[in-house]
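Quick one, tokens below. Sequence please?
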């Protein structure tokens, strides 16, 4: 199925990777949101479990192996074209994750990756929904400590 103008929504997963009070963010290399900062993630493959998909996407985009924790949120990400037709439609399931091993590197769908503090996120032009999701993950993580 094509990602542009799909016949139905595409299931995607995202990873809010938290370590020492910071979050790992990725600059998207491909549309939608090409050039924008977000969290690592991507589409689930046929026959793949959600947690396996998020772990695979993180490894492909960042070089890191992660421990996949609880679901943080589920939401729609819909991008209409200039004529109002649905160009992209994802149903996204985002997980709290922690790094286990690996060497951080931008790969696959990420042109750049870096660790950031919550107070840095608005200046990076991130979508407010993503900033809110990251803050939720950081609060949940700090409550466990």
């Amino acid at each position: 199925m094509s990602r542009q103008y799909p016949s139905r929504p595409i299931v995607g997963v995202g990873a809010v990777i938290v370590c020492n009070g910071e979050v790992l963010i990725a600059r998207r290399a491909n549309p939608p949101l090409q050039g924008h900062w977000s969290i690592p993630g991507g589409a689930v493959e046929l026959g793949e479990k959600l947690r396996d998909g998020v772990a695979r996407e993180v490894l492909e985009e960042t070089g890191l192996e992660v421990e996949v924790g609880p679901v943080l949120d589920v939401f729609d990400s819909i991008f209409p074209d200039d004529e109002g037709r649905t160009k992209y439609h994802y149903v996204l399931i985002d997980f709290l994750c922690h790094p286990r091993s690996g060497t951080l590197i931008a790969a696959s769908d990420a042109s750049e990756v870096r660790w950031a503090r919550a107070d840095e996120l608005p200046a990076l032009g991130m979508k407010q929904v993503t900033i809110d999701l990251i803050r939720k993950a950081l609060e949940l993580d700090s409550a466990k400590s």
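The chain has a mean pLDDT of 94. The chain has one domain: 13-76+96-144.
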